[in-house]
Amino acid sequence: MAAELSAGTSFQMWAVFVLILGALVFYLFERAAMELTSLGIICVLLIFFHFFPVAGADGAAALPPARILQGFANPALITVLALLVMGQGMIRTGVLDRGAGLILGLGGGNAGLIASMLVALLVTIAVSAFLNNIPVVVIFIPIMEALAHRYGRSVSKLMIPLSYAAVLGGMTTLIGSSTNLLVNSALIERKIAPFSFFDFTIPGLVMAAVGLGYVVFIAPRLLPDRAGLADSLTEGDGKHFVAQITVSADSGLVGKGAPGGHFASLPEKTLRLVQRGEQAILPPFEDYVVRPGDVLVVAATRKALAKFLADDPGLLYPNLEEGRSFASDTAPGGRWQEGGQTLAEVMVAPASAMKGQTLPQIGFRYKTHCIVLGIQRRSRMIRQRLTDIRLEPGDVLLVQGQPDDVAALRRHRDVVLLEWSAEDLPALDHAKRATVIFLSVVALAATGAVPIVVAALTGAAALVAVGVLNVRQAFQAVDPKIVTTIASALALGVALQETGGARYLAHGLVTAFQGASPATILSLFFLLVAGLSNIISTKTAAVLFTPIAVDLAIELGVEPHVFAVAVIFAANCSFASPLGYQTNLLVMGPGHYKFTDFARAGLPLIVLLWAAFSLFAPWYYGI
User: Are strands 342-348 and 295-301 parallel, antiparallel or unpaired?
Assistant: First the structure.
């Protein structure tokens, strides 16, 4: 094989090998920002092949700048970015959040942790098969936290299994992971027929089933129990806001009572006062039954109030000034229909003119175009209506408004905007159209009616067109690390292919395992890729090893798709390190993990999946 390479091509091939090793060192030890490293790789390739070109079959340069830079316009990259935008749309509309919230109920009040965890991870796997894994894990982190608290277990027992389940789900369909799309794109680059939507679903489901059994029954036993101080310090924000709920005639609270003083109809909230006309009803509330017109003063965390706001937006908006109703501001064409809403916290400044005044006296709603949902005061328990509380310096107000109006609070001399607290609220009125668009994209891609990149990009554009996301939110969903890392990995993959590096490595592997059966080489190749995917990113492993897999299959006389499937599954096996896959990084904080925790739980899973693939794939593909 080496003899077939010209002297010039051999030099360029070894130069590419050195560049790949250097890139891996920079990625592994974070010598520079990932975006900078990726762009640096592309620049080095551009400069090197300008001065040392590789001649193609027609005598022209095989690696001109356009070929090296074409990764930025690669259909796989465009598809990944479009799916990220669609995932952001599903989060923005609250579709994933509401669907995930049903899991606690599906587990049942009397079900054990194992049953509830199994349901949660099954749903995670199912959703991850059709959506990018990152937003799925973001949505399910609080669900797993809730399960841990319900059953008195440490969250450190559940977070790594969540990340692993998302990765396992991503193995089952073509759009389940960016890794899958990149391998598919590399096949197209080699003029090999691409995968269809469900081509590797059956072996993917086998792998997912084996992995699910491990993450539910074994992984929690291997993970540390870091409950106690860490959880107590990180559980929520600890702050309770006083909020006011005005009960309308059609409210579901009408007729509800509080037997034993516990108001079950207001979960995660403490009822402190009921104002009925001129009468104030104080605890205990054994004989109290809700009537229309009652004003309920409750204490709850910001998270609980935000959830309550999503379920029934009108209840938390008191009629603050001059009898104006919430409905008058939310009518079609009104200010509250002009854009998305943001939830934030502001603190009453020490020398504020608001000191000693109530919200109606201040006219806060009209001056700022923001509604105050709750007030938090650390010094004492408040038992007053929200509209009757006289503000004091240091009070924290939970406010809701349009992003521009909330941002304008920075210039308000009487309050201090707590910058870290701002977050966009779900646009629940767009949930149906977002769901329809998402399901349409999946259906079009699955049936092959249009190419996946066409379906995904059109779906992302449709979300912006119908108002689910604005342009700013759509671009915020595009991660520059993903763009630059994929583009640089694709550039390296092209260079590896055109310089003959892929063929050289494939021939070397066949020679090293001379006499071994294709099934044995397939198994060892899987193990090699799986090991390296925990050191470098899964995307880099997928792009670099797909050309090698194709040439290896050709050397062995095996269908190239068999080895390409091995790359898909093996590159996704980044379980032993938080570096290989972004979902692992996402759960490190909530789970209070150390680097070694991933190795402890991930290495046995890699070995288990390697064994499952080595036994099932040769039989399934007939090699």
Answer: unpaired
CB 604 within 8 A of CB 161: no
Highest-scoring range by mean pLDDT, 185-199, 322-336, 417-431: 185-199
Assigned CATH for 240-427: 3.30.70.1450
Higher pLDDT, 434 or 603: 603
Average pLDDT of the residues in 102-131 = 75
- What is the side-by-side strand order in the sheet with 269-276? 279-281, 269-276, 295-301, 240-246, 371-376, 396-401, 342-348, 415-424
CB atoms inside a 10 Å sphere around CB 575: 31
Asked if 485 and 38 touch (Cβ cutoff 8 Å), the reply is yes
Whole-number mean pLDDT of the chain?
Answer: 79
Rounded Cα distance, 180 and 168, in Å: 12
> What span, in angstroms and rounded, lies between the C-alpha atoms of 42 and 442?
33
CA torsion sign for 547, 551, 556, 557 is: positive
State the pTM of this model: 0.61
Can you read off the two tokens belonging to residue 31? 């010598």
Residues 296/244, Cβ–Cβ less than 8 Å: yes
Q: Domain limits of the chain?
A: 78-229+430-471, 240-427
Q: What single-letter DSSP state applies at residue 499?
A: T
Which 3 state secondary structure label does DSSP give 165?
A: helix
Locus of tokens 């779906």: 459
Mean pLDDT of 239-251: 78
Residue 379 has a pLDDT of: 54
Across residues 72-84, what is the average pLDDT? Answer: 81
Give the closest residue to 19 by CA, choosing from 54, 39, 45: 45
